[in-house]
Write a structure and sequence with these properties.
By secondary structure, the chain is an alpha+beta fold. It folds into 2 domains: 4-89 and 223-227, Aminopeptidase (3-Layer(aba) Sandwich); 90-218, Aminopeptidase, CATH 3.40.630. The chain is built from 6 helices and 13 strands. Strand 1 (24-27) and strand 2 form a beta hairpin. The longest helix is centred in the last third of the chain and has 15 residues, at 176-190.
Length: 228
């Protein structure tokens, strides 16, 4: 049996081995999400990655490999390493309960476009519209508009990642993110799973996560590739 600690060292891999197995695409023993859902991949053997990236790159223009400390081999004739995002992993140590004063609602499929648009506004990146299918999403509405969300991304049998925490620029500094993270964390604990999250090193939000009870565990790097 693989320990939780080992799974946390390669969370994309074990999410695709377990809870998210239905989204798994494998190329040459490298594991990827269906690119309609998420553009993350993971590996153990770097000698397998060059061929795998070539194959996956035929289905999506840009994508990530997520790794604690390994570096993938690539075919520079077909694949370009655009950048390495130095990130870190945090896990919940002890929840520090935060008062929730806002009405937080679970979001449904009818909110999928609103989620996509809000994430795209705040964090223009690589979130996929069907990323909604990875887990549960929660939101705060004001005057009928979705103005803050948090969601769940990577999931295995014993952990769930808090992710997609965004607030509309017109509604920041009101404590919405703190309340949403707390709520999402509590929902994960109800499932008897460990809440985890990932962020960029140096992100000012790290102090917020620590106030809720999260602690740093390890580096977790995102390597962004594109097809040539």
């Amino acid at each position: 049996m693989i320990s939780l600690e080992e799974k946390l060292k390669n969370p994309v891999w074990y999410s695709l081995e377990e809870t998210h197995k239905k989204f798994l695409i494998t190329h040459n023993d490298v594991q990827f999400y269906d690119p309609d859902i998420c553009i993350f991949g993971a590996f153990y053997d770097s000698s397998k990655t060059s061929k795998a990236l070539n194959q996956y790159g035929k289905t999506v223009e840009k994508f990530f490999l997520v790794s604690e400390n390994q570096t993938a081999e690539i075919d520079t004739n077909t694949t370009v390493l655009e950048k390495k995002i130095a990130g870190c992993q945090m896990v919940l140590e002890t929840l520090i309960d935060i008062e929730i004063t806002e009405e937080i609602v679970i979001l449904t499929e009818k909110h999928m476009d609103e989620i996509y648009d809000l994430i795209g506004l705040v964090m223009p990146s690589f979130y996929r519209r069907r990323g909604f299918e990875m887990g549960r999403f929660f939101g705060i509405f004001k005057n009928g508009k979705l103005i803050a969300i948090s969601g769940q991304r990577m999931q295995a049998d014993d952990f769930i990642e808090v992710s997609s925490v965004v607030t509309h620029p017109d509604h920041t500094r009101k404590g919405y993110a703190k309340q949403l993270i707390t709520h999402t964390t509590k929902e994960i604990l109800k499932e008897n799973k460990l809440p985890i999250l990932h962020t960029n090193k140096g992100n000012i939000a790290i102090s917020l996560y620590e106030k809720i009870g999260y602690k740093f565990t390890r580096d977790m790097n995102w390597w962004l590739y594109s097809r040539k």
